[in-house]
Amino acid sequence: MRKVITYGTFDLFHYGHVHLLRRAKELGDFLIVALSTDEFNEKEKGKHTYFTYEQRKLILEAIKYVDLVIPEETWEQKSNDVKKYGVSCFVIGDDWRGKFDFLKEDGCDVVYLERTPEVSSSAIKTDYALGERKA
Ligand code: C2G
Fold first, then answer.
1. Is 87 within 8 Å of 4 (Cβ atoms)?
2. Distance, CA of 129 to CA of 124 (rounded, Å)
3. Radius of gyration, CA atoms only, the chain
4. pTM (2 decimals)?
5. pLDDT tens digit string along 35-82?
6. Alpha carbon nearest to ligand 1 atom 26, residue
7. With a 6 A CB cut-off, is 95 part of the ligand 1 pocket?
8. Is 43 assigned a catalytic role?
9. I need a surface site. Which of 35, 81, 114, 120 has the fewest CB within 10 A?
């Protein structure tokens, strides 16, 4: 079984996240999502999410591409996760290009996938407040 892992906050879940998770799953048989906890978001990423960790986890567990959701609590846990779960492939959006190449030293493939343009959790917040709509 080829396991794939990806990391993120996934707040205000949207179609850009779906495209990422679909493509990530295509790279293996089992997709693990390491979901940023509320504490990690606040203290390390400077993000104040709309939904709590448990609410964001519930949404991700309902996504057909996702097989397991684990907490992302530190920047440094990635190498341990790769070993602990026997992960063959690390995937993330190309806004992170180059940042996680060190995982190749653990024998893990590292894939940066193109971000879906014109959608983001932060844009949803501002656009909605301004009365902007996609439709
Ligand atoms: N994403 C995307 N297209 C978008 C928005 C997001 O492909 N329009 C991808 C991001 O590149 C990321 C994933 O969806 O791979 C989750 O996005 P975020 O929740 O913004 O993740 P981020 O804050 O980048 O967290 O340790 C790594 C971090 O936890 C990554």
1. yes
2. 8
3. 15
4. 0.97
5. 999 999 999 999 999 999 999 999 999 999 999 999 999 999 999 999
6. 7
7. yes
8. no
9. 114
